[in-house]
Prior knowledge:
Layout (H helix, E strand, L loop, with lengths): L13 H18 L1 E5 H20 L2 H10 L3 H14 L8 E5 L10 E6 L2
Helix pairs in contact: 1-2, 2-3, 2-4
Amino acid sequence: MRHGISGSKFSRNTAHRTLMYRTMVTDLIRHERITTTEAKAKEVRSMAEKVITLGKKGTLHHRRQALGFITQESIVRKVFDELSVRYASRPGGYTRVLKTEPRKGDGASMAILELVT
């Protein structure tokens, strides 16, 4: 039974799944828009919002926490310098998921995950 367990496994072991999430959040912040499956977009959305919230807090401790999750230091600088200023007055909801047409190969439901401007 799965009582109280959240999140999808995506047929990957824990280390692979965690690195996939970290890479997708890093790419989302770098490009401000990524195309992925709808399920992955919904999982990554909450993680990206948590990282941006760390950037808004702006302390050294929060910067080190973000460095522990994001895979590149330049992206952490972008979070703390640019995105924290952009979303300073916004209490949350920094991302949006837009559904697109299914993938041609296997019919998986696709979505665009992007940062709100």
